[in-house]
Structure formats: structure tokens, C-alpha cells
Structures
1.
Amino acid sequence: MDVSRWERHTLLATEAERDQRPMMSVIHYQLALAESQQLEPIHGTRDELEDLLTIKVISCHNLAGFWRRAGDNEYELKYLQLASEQVMALIPQCPRKTCDAFIDSLGCCRSALIEFLKRHPNPAVAKQVEHINLSNQCELIAKFRLH
């Protein structure tokens, strides 16, 4: 996965913002986001997929930060929502919406969310949830245990 174009646009955006050239900054942040969306994993390893997700989320957060500093809360929220969607795409969705462990707003069960957080790239977050075991509350997992 070649991230050099993404890196270049991110650096140019940061430099432009530092030099107080907001139009160039937002253009390069947008180009970095576009580059991040075009990236594809080569080997499909867990590390490579985590790097790809991190790049996509960073791109969204860079734009959210830009709009926050510009005083535009609406655009800031849109880019934070886009970052959230990038993460949500990796959490396994569950078809059992009547399960007690199902979280409506996320479309997944608590077990899937906790397992996802255990692999969080930030070790502090992963450490906070490492001892939580909610699989006994998931109807789908309980069904497999019975058979």
C-alpha cells in the first residue's frame, strides 16, 4: 500500500495551515481524504488493514479539526460522522435486532463492539476493555454453544 501521495497532501495541508493559507490547506486535506479512500490493502494483513483504517480516520479528523478552527461546527460534525462511519464499517453487524445485547445505534451487539475495542490501535483503550466478556449475553453466540 503506497501512502506517499496521502502523506504528501497531509503535509502540504499542515504547512498551508501553518502559513495561514486556509484555501490551500482545505484543498490538500480534501485531496488527502480522497487518496485515503482510494488506498487498497496489498496483503490484507491485520496490520495493513489497521493502518488503512487509521489513515482514513486521520484524514476525516484533519478536516474536522480544520473546520473546528474555522468556526464551522456543521462541517466539523460531518467529518467526524464520516470518521465514525469508517470505523463502523469494520464492526460486524448483527441481523438479530431483538437480542438483548443488540445496540440499535451501532447495528451490532455489545460482544462485537467489545471485541473490536480489544483490538483498538490505542493500547490504553484496548487495555480498558481487555477483561470484559459479554459473549454470554449474545443470543447468536449462545445458540452456537448449545449445539
2.
Amino acid sequence: MNFLAQTISIIIQVILLVLSIVWYRQDYEIEPLIGIITLCGSSIISLLMRFVKRPKMQLYHVKTHYGRWTTGLTKNNPQVIRLGIDKIDQYWDLEWDYNLEIRNNSSFTAYNIVVEYNNIPEKTIVKGEIGKIEPVQSHDMREFKIKVTQSVEGNHIEADNYLKQNEGVLTKDFTITLKYTDENGIRFRTKYFWLSQKNEFLIF
């Protein structure tokens, strides 16, 4: 009903605008010119309001855990390893765990939600989904689990350095795009930049 009312209102404004233009071209009086300007402004505002009043899906993540563990020794070690003296070269698995919140921060329900992961790091595991026809009501939230892993070689000091430094390296180009519509089928997008936690709200 809301969409029908808006559409009828725009059609009426267009008809009045056409009639005002015809009137002005016939008589060149000031009244139809004022009507043309008023109706043009009103039509522009009506169209803009359709996009201002929109669902706004917003993302935010929190790191919940990170760590490393060894999976074995490499061949880059002496035949006799002196424990506590030699820096043992090992294979390591690094892991960073996150909770990803996807929240509808608006007063309007979001429909037809699609989640796209762009430049996602290799060996990343995503747990969570939103059904294709599952709406997300105003201020509702969905939580996803994201696990980023990496395999490296080195001693324990190098593994600790990788753990501190590689998180940003692996995720610097990682973005998430949410595509969704309002109840009228108008398409919107949110582009989320993982490293900066920035949300960019887009139309179409």
C-alpha cells in the first residue's frame, strides 16, 4: 500500500507538471511557471525520500581469540637439537577468530539479503548465513563466526611475530558486500571494509 500511494502521488505530480507546462506555453504567465518550479521541487523531494527512508544493514566485527600451535619440525634443524638453546624451526598454524555482527540499524525491514565476500583470505571459514527470502526486521541482528588461518614456518619467536603482523596483511583487501531490498523491491547495498570497520551505504 505504501508503494502504491507513493507511485500514485508521483504520477499525479507528473500530470500536474505537464499541465502547468502546457498552460505556461500558451499564456506565458507567472502562475504556471511558479507551479512548474514547485512541482519539480516536490517531485525531486518525493524521489529522494524513497531512498532516504531505507533499510540500513550495518556490519561490525570483534576478535574473540587468536593463537598458534606447532604441527611438527621442519628439515631446517640440526640432527641434535639442544632444548632451551637452539631456536627450533617448526611448522605452525596461526588462527584468528572473530564474531561478525550484521544488524539492521533502521526502522525498515530488509529483504532478499545476499552476502558476498570479496578478497577473502585463503583458509577462511565462515559459519552463519541469512536465508535468501529471510527478512531482517528493524534493529534485528545476525551473528556470524569468521576463522582466518595461515600456515607458516619458523621458530617460536618468528611465529609470534607472524601472529601479530599477518592479521592486517591477510585482511587488508577483505571486504563484505550486503545486497538487499526494501518492501518495494528497491535495491540497496552495504560495503564493509574489514580492516577499517567502515560501512559504505549504497543504492542499486
3.
Amino acid sequence: METESEPYVRLATLRQLHQVVAELNTARSLADTLQTVVDGIVRGLGYELACVNLVRPDGDLVVAAFAGDPAAEALITGRVGSRPAWERRLTMGEDWDGLRFIPHTEGWVLLEDDVPQWHTDGPDPRFEDEWHPEDRLYAPMYATGGELLGVISVDRPRNGRRPGAWGREALQMYAFQAAIAISNARLRANMQRALVRLEREQQALRASEESFRQAFEYAPSGMAIAEMGGDQHGRLLRTNDALCRLLGRPASVLRRYSFSDLVHPEDIGTLLRTSAEGGRAELRLGRRDGTYVWVSLRNSVVADAADGPRFLLTHVEDIEERKRHELQLAHRASHDSLTGLPNSAELRARLGARLCRRPQSVRAGAVEALDAAFEGRPEGVGTGEHGYDGYAAAAVPAGPGPGGEGFDFPAGFPGQPEGPYDHHVHAVAPDSDIDDGTKGLAVLFCDLDGFKSINDRFGHHTGDAVLIEVARRLTTGVRDGDTVARLGGDEFVVLADGLGAADAADLAVRLRNAIIPPIRVDGRAVRVGASFGIGWASCGMSADEVLRSADQRMYIEKRSRSKAHRRAG
């Protein structure tokens, strides 16, 4: 059974979470936003039922949106639960880092209160973490100031189990983003009503302007008014305090700029592609101290009935925290939780990025051409004669190098892609273990010797400490551009580009010697050895084939040494 601890399950969850969170910002009205929230839970977070209980002005909560069951939706949508009853629920059960889980063994006392509820009968759980039909899971949503906006209620996980740590964090992050989306929808609705009054109620212009001013000035997120048309198109005319604080610039200074002056150079295209009316973009704006902050920028046009558009109203939301969470989730999904090294999925992704389907069948001709082109190069550079120290001077080739990597072939060459040139840097494997000057992508498969006995004698705590120290030693022993990954257990893989056969052999010896010294854990010195197999990545191979080749070479090398030599102690 697939579990949420598996990397590809986490990656799939992350993609789904990113997609449904992005869709929260596409809804325009509050009603659309609420329905998008529950639809996203059912479609992207793995629950069959979801509803949003929204806080009304009188404090009670109304079922404002429902997804997953038309019959249940018709029965409870629009029904109201009292605030005291909800406060009771949000203090019962188990606190899951901001979520509130009430198991069926405690929730029976809630069957008669006035909160609208729906559940189906079902058998008792067969195992500890199985979901019971009367289990309840709530995700409260709070505004920036800590005020309760509403409560998300979910039911019937598709896998039939209570969510684990990963699923809880995904639901918690989604509730956080949903609260922002609902607040923004309310803010947009308020702003839209203010703008309509400005145009339709000319006789009450002063009152309408004051209402707009307050909504603009005291908005919790950044707001700006920019000029439209003419030579000064895009110039900021007015900014609120929240935007000034966000960018660290006073309003008088911001009036000298347009957003195109403040945007990060890499995001200028995103800004220009954003349409004026209803346009939205996520980009970076510059602060006064020279740093950049991620923002969500949304535009709407304030139109004049007689003269057409007059100015652009821009809503600027700080999304730095969300971007940081996304990066953290992406890192956790692609890296080993114990050692911090890239995991198996990330290793295969990096290796696959260097491979193409076309086998490198013209290496000899390319080598001859490049030998002629590089005639007269400094002695020893790229030849491998200095071993690992020598290749460190050559580093990873930035362009054409020995062995045909990066060679441009004419259009129509057999096996080449369409187009005048092939700019892919092809991975080439040396023909033998003898260093003939060919440089390639070496794949060093490392298996620790004697690790199982350490685990058996001293326990997993000591074993984990050994793995962490081995990962540190391997990382210290390679170049900055190389990859050290953990496949799992006591297996590690090193990817090192730009090596010859002698370079790779020297690197394996250096890394083995770095692993052998004793490792101290809780005052005890333990030792492990290491067996290395050297494989070579070559275009035409898959990532699994490359790893399998290195793995086989590692076992050949392990069997070639006696058990006494394999064990480090």
C-alpha cells in the first residue's frame, strides 16, 4: 500500500496542494471562493466530503459551501450552528498542530447539539488508525489578527485512514491559504462596492470617497493606485501604509516609481504579461534594503463612464511565507530526512536530466576534432594525471570537452534531433578502466561494510549517527558541483561529472579512506568500511540502468576482497 512517507506520494501531494491553492486565487466572488475551497479539498487532499462553516456577523457559523455529496449538500447547506456549540467542539478531542480531531469514542456527546452534521453508518474500525464514520476533523481558519473566520470540516478520507503527519500538514497549510483567500475575497468585495458607489452615486461623492479611503488606507495588505495611459502610465499615484511597510519605503518615495521600476529583473516579463483588468501575477518586488519580497499582485481598472479607464487599483499581498513553505515542502519531498542528502527520487531526476535517448555512437570522431581544437592546452589539465586533485582544477566542463560532450553536429546527422544544432551535453562513458583522456559522468555506488552488525549490536540510534557522519564525510570529500545522495539503508551514490577513469578510481579510494576512521557515538568508537562500484552514465541509458551497472560493479568489487579486508572494525 502506498503511504504518505514515500517520496513520490509526497511529491504528488505537493503538486495537488500547489494546484488547488493556486485555484483559490482565481475565484472572484466570496461565494466562488468558498466553493473553490471545498472543491479543492475533495479533489486535491483526498477527502470525500468537505464543508466550510463561515462565521456570520452575529458570531454563529453557517454552512456556506459543501462538496462531495449532493444529498448532504441539500440537507445542511445554509443551516446555522451556534457559536458556543462550535467553541465546545474546537476544545474537544485531540489537537493536531492547529487541527482538531474528535474520535468517535468522544464525539457521541455531540450528536444532539445544534451544529449541522452529516455522517453515514459503517462498521467499527478494524485497526488503530482506520477512519470511523463518526470521527470528526476540523481545520479552523483565522484572520491575520487571530479572529476566527470559519471552520473547514472534512470527512471520509479516500484511503480509509486517519491522516498522518504529512496529510495533517497539507490540510493545515490549505486552511491557512483558504483563510487568506476568503479574507481577500471579502476585501475585494468591499473594494468593489466602494468603487461602484464612486461612479453611481455622484451626489454622495464625498461619503463614497471617504469609504474608499478607509478601505484603502486600513487594508491589511498592500494597495496602490497607478496612472493609466499617457507618458506616465504605471506610475504610482497613491499607496497605503501596508504597502509602504512591506517595501520599506515612504509613500512620498514610492510616488516616484512604477511597479516596473521595483520588480525583480527576472520577473519583468511576468509583470508585462499580466493583463490590466483582472490580471494576477506572483513576482518579487524590491525593498529599500536591496532585498526582494514575494508578492501576489492583482489589478482591477477603475473606469470613468465618460472618459474611459482613469486609474489602476492594485492589490499587493505578501506571500513570502507561502513561498518559503513551498520550498520547504519541496526540499522535504526530495531529500532524505535523516541525512539531508538528496533521496532516490531526486537522484534519478538529476541523473535523468543528464541523459538523452540517443546513444553516443560518434565519440571517436568528436574526440579527434576536439583534440585538434584544444591542441596546446596546459599540460596536465583534463588528462587525469593528477588524480582527484588534478580534476579539481579542471572542474565540470562548461562547454565542449574531451569525449565529444557538447559537440554541435550538423542537421540531418543520424540520430540527431531536428534543428541546425544539437546543444545537449552528451554523457560519454570511458571505453575501459584505463584512463584514455575521456571525461564522463562517473556514478560511484557505495555500500557500507559492517553496518548491519553495528545496528544489531548497538541499536538504530547508533546506526543513524553513523549514517549521518558517513553522509557528512562523503559530502566533504567531493566538489561543490557533485551530488551525494542516499538511496536508502546503508547505500549512497555519488555523481561526479568531468572525470576520467583514473580520476574516478582515485575519488573512490579517497572516499573509502574518509569513511574508514572511527566514528564516535555516545562515547563509543565504531567503524565501518565501504565498497565502491564505479559506473558511467552514457546517453542512451536510463537512470535505472546506470545505477544498476554501478551497483553490479560494487558487488564485484566487494566479492573481490576478503571479508577481513571489507570490514573496517
